[in-house]
User: What shape does this take?
Amino acid sequence: MKGLFKKLNESKIFKDLSPQEFAWVLYDVGNSAFTMLGCSLIPIWFKSLAIGDAPGQISGDNATAYWALATSIVTVIVALIGPFFGAIADHKDTKKIFFTTAVAGGVIGCIINGFAMNWLLFLIIYILAKIFYQISLTFYDSMLNDVTSDERSDAVSAYGYAWGYIGSCLPFTVALIAYVLGPDMVGLISGGLSRMIGFGVTAVWWWLVTVPLLSNYKQINYSSDQKGAVARAFSKIFKTVKKIAAEDKKVLYFLIAFFLYIDGVGTIIDNCINIGTDLGLNTVGQVIFLLLTQVVAWLGSLVFARLSKKKDTVFLIQICILGYTAVCLYALTLTKLWQFAIMAFGVGCFQGSIQSLSRSYYAKIIPDENSGEYFGIYDIFAKGASFLGSFLIYVVKKIGIRTGGIFTIFGSHIKSINVAIGLLALFFLLGIIFIRMADKAPQSEESKKDIQE
Assistant: This one.
């Protein structure tokens, strides 16, 4: 296995990456498999366990509502504990230990998830596994400064996003084949066994491609003063928030914009499969289109990476926001599988780009000497993405259930999930207003520099 990774690193595609950079990129390839499973097959498996007339089972609308609520719970928990683990990451010789523990917790949770036969237990285990997954990303992101130089960090980070999309396709294809060969199709594999295979192959892939990072990583950067690091981290965050609100309107307006539009982005990613299942679309077709969306996302990231060398960053972010706004409004008309495919491909065009462009623009408008503190604020929003949107879906679904389908007054094809996704357009429209305000606002003296560099 070690020889295979070495040959890949020496190939034409990855030859420009050092062994540590290559190992760092590989972890994105690994954890993206869990992300892909989480936005496609896992919601389907959850609904197959939850929906029914038997005692303890629930309706389809309730299943979507509970899934959205669970997503909100995860994002809130991760947003709150993020600064704590960020402070731990600054301790000498601890980052690798905690990163390994978080990955192991996520991988084990992923495996156990495949054995859960009760929908509530299934949901609880998934929540725990996703929390471990998100914690691992906190340590993973902080490793970037240890594995590469400042000059190469943008390129290496972009490699992680791009190859994460493609790398997740291999284990997901195996999981999809197991799902398709279930009892409804051929009868060779039971529904329970297909879930075990799907979760199992994802977990094994996730762990295997993490091994090079665990083997090669060495922590270089750490805080020399370790006493009270966690308490200081929270104290600094509160002080930084006050400082931004009082002195730096450019950063303040951008964070408000980011909070709004990235929540919409996260909500669509986490709930995309629920849109199709609530509309009664063919689940296999949905999943296949989501798999193809990974390729679209890969190509979209590369296109915007090239455009970023010629076009203004804020202009490109606005293009991405408008693209997502169009997707949300288009969801109001969604009734057929081919329409779902168009929506999924539309999301793929902007998914990675809006995240990478936002991160790079934020880095340009904050003071370099306090970047850690400022990114602590940024990560709260980034890790907490989809809280408001998922909660909105939960509320809209509950309204639809209690009113007996009130949204049918807008047309027979309109269901609560159409309305919920359509309302997310408000998040993006408000986001574009605030990012334009951020672009026009003067930069603080402390962080003043040429943001077009």
User: Anything to note?
Assistant: The chain is about 75% helix and 0% strand. The longest helix spans residues 249-278. The two ends are 41 Å apart (CA to CA). Residues 47 and 63 are 6 Å apart (CA to CA).
